[in-house]
Amino acid sequence: MFEQLSIPLACTDPTIPDSKKPFECKNLESTDPTDVVNKVTLRVNSNYSAYAMCNIGNDEGKDPLGRPCPIGGYCCYCSAPSHSYPPKDAPCNSTIGLEVIKDHFGYSSHCSKDYDCWTAHTVAKLTDEYPGLWYSPLDIGDCSLHATPEENCTWAVQSIDKIVNATCHTQSFFSAVQKASPTSFAQCTNGTSVAAPNATDPCWVRGFYEAVLGPKASRSILWKVEGLPLEDLIGYWSAPFQSEDPALGGCPGLPIPTIEEAVQLSLQKPKLTHNPQRRGQSFMRKFFGADDEVLA
Asked: What pTM value is reported for the model?
C-alpha cells in the first residue's frame, strides 16, 4: 500500500516534471515483471543497525539515486540514521539493517495530490503491534559464509518457506480487497460490470485506497483513518503463502532452492566494486527477487 500502488498516477502526472516525481518512478523493483515474493524465516542477531537501501542497477549502471550499480545487479548502500533525503552514505557493517516504517515516515497531512495523500496517510494505518518493518540482511553477515561463528555472523536462513510470482500475489491481494469493499469500486465499470483489479487504472487505484484508508483519505485535512481493518489486510497479503487454492487466495509455489544453492547463486551475481566500504550485497534480493517476508 505504501507508495507502490500510487505509482501509475504519480509517474504519469503531466503536471509534475520528471525531476520532481517520486523515487518509485525510477525503481525497477516496483515495475519488473519477473519479481517474486518470498516467505523466508531467518535466525538473526537482533543488534540492528540503520536500514540499507538496496536497488536494481538500471541500463546506465546506476541505482535510482544515481549511484554506481551494475546493470541488472543488486546494490545496497548503507546510510547514517537520518530523516534526510536522499540519505547520506555511511560505511556498511555485518549487522542487519532495520527500518520501522511507522516511526521513520511518521504521519504527515501535508499533501497536494490525491496519490501523495494516500502515501502519507497509509503510515497512519500502522499500529504499535503492526508498525511495518523493513530488513536489509547483507551478505557480509551471512553465517553460512563463515567457517566458524565470529563477529560478522549475524544472520542465517532457517527455512525458505514459499516463493510465489508477484503477479499472482498482487492479483490475490487486490481481489480480496475489492471483494471485501465492493462499493469502493462501484464507479470503475468495464462495460456493464465492475472492472477486475487493475493497478494501472486510476479509478481502480482510487477505489483501493478508499477501501483500505476510508473515503476521505485523498484529503490533506479533515479526514480520519477508516477502511478495512489492518488485521484483515495482513490476512489478505499472507493468503498466497497459506495455500495453493485460488478460492482461498492461494498462489502456486515456485521451485524452492536449497539454502546451499541459494548461497552459491548469490555469490555469482554482479558485484559492486565502487566505494566498497559504503555498500553491501543483499543476499535475499540477489537470489529470490524483490520482496521478502522475513520472520525474524
From this structure: 0.80
- State the cell numbers at 159: 527455512
| pLDDT at residue 268, rounded to an integer | 57
Q: What is the pLDDT of residue 191?
A: 61
pLDDT tens track for 231-277: 999 999 999 999 999 999 999 999 988 877 776 666 555 544 333 33
DSSP string, 23-91: GGGG-GGGT-TT-EEEEEEEEE----EEPPEEEE--TTSB-TTS-B--TT-EEEE-B-S-S-SSPPB--
Residues of the chain with pLDDT under 70: 1-4, 23, 30-33, 81-83, 107-109, 149-150, 190-193, 263-296
Q: What is the dihedral of CA 273, 279, 281, 282, to 10 degrees?
A: -160
CA distance 226 to 12: 28
Phi, psi of 259 (to 5 degrees): -60, -40
Q: In the sheet where 291-295 sits, what is the strand order?
A: 155-165, 36-44, 291-295
Q: What is the rounded CA–CA span in Å between residue 149 and residue 19? A: 46
* Unique residue bearing C-alpha cell 482510487: 206
| C-alpha cell, 185 | 469500486
Choose among 189, 240, 169, 179: nearest CA to 211: 179
Dihedral over Cα of 21, 214, 240, 258: its sign? positive
HSE value, Cβ hemisphere, 13 Å, CA-based, for 185: 24
pLDDT of residue 149: 65
